[in-house]
Write a structure and sequence with these properties.
85% helix
Length: 91
């Protein structure tokens, strides 16, 4: 076990924790907005009317939240890769 292995482990764990703590709230909020948007669409269909424009504030917010969750999820995956490299790297 070298200092490089320990560095990869520490950096990997840091990225996993950071990625999760930033991605999870964004994903939860995205799911809540998605559920609300689906409810509004069902109501509009039941009422017989349609929303004129498909681009709403909720849809813009969902795009931002989805992008944020994706980016921080990739950071967490990068942390997992670093942890595995710390185990398998022999220097």
């Amino acid at each position: 076990m070298t200092i490089l292995n320990l560095t990869f482990w520490a950096l990997g764990v840091l990225l996993i924790v950071l990625g999760y703590t930033r991605a999870a709230p964004a994903w939860r909020r995205y799911r809540a907005l998605s559920d609300q948007d689906a409810n509004v669409r069902r109501y509009e269909q039941w009422r017989g009317g349609t929303r004129g424009d498909d681009r709403t504030g909720a849809s813009v917010a969902m795009e931002v939240l989805r992008r944020r969750a994706r980016i921080w999820g990739l950071v967490a995956i990068g942390g997992v890769v670093l942890v595995f490299l710390g185990f398998f790297l022999r220097v």
